[in-house]
Amino acid sequence: MNSTHPLELVTVEPAALRVWVETRTVFLELTDGRILGFPASRFKRLSTASDEALSAVHLELDGHALRWDGLDEDISVPGVVAGRFQLPVQ
């Protein structure tokens, strides 16, 4: 008797290749080619950060986290992609 197995869905968490800030919007280029952005005002510490501090973002954990050393802030890339923000749209 032959049996077939249904295709298993593989879930891969989104990761970023690069991150940058323009006019208080944080942009991510994801490994799947998408580019998405979110306003700094969606996170408490980012909303009150200076433009200079906001621009000092870098990737951590193989592109799965955003890190602002000067603000002591970490944000997960999968969380951003899923739309999990601290503050509502203003």
Describe the structure.
- This protein is α+β, with helices and mostly antiparallel strands and 90 residues long.
- The chain has one domain (16-81): NE0471 N-terminal domain-like (2-Layer Sandwich), CATH 3.30.2020.
- 16% of the residues lie in helices and 32% in strands.
- The protein has 3 helices and 6 strands, in the order E-E-E-H-H-E-E-E-H.
- The strands form 2 sheets. The chain has a 3-stranded antiparallel β-sheet. The protein has a 3-stranded antiparallel β-sheet with strand order 4-5-6.
- A hairpin with a 2-residue loop joins strand 1 (16-22) and strand 2 (25-30).
- The protein is elongated, with a radius of gyration of 16 Å.
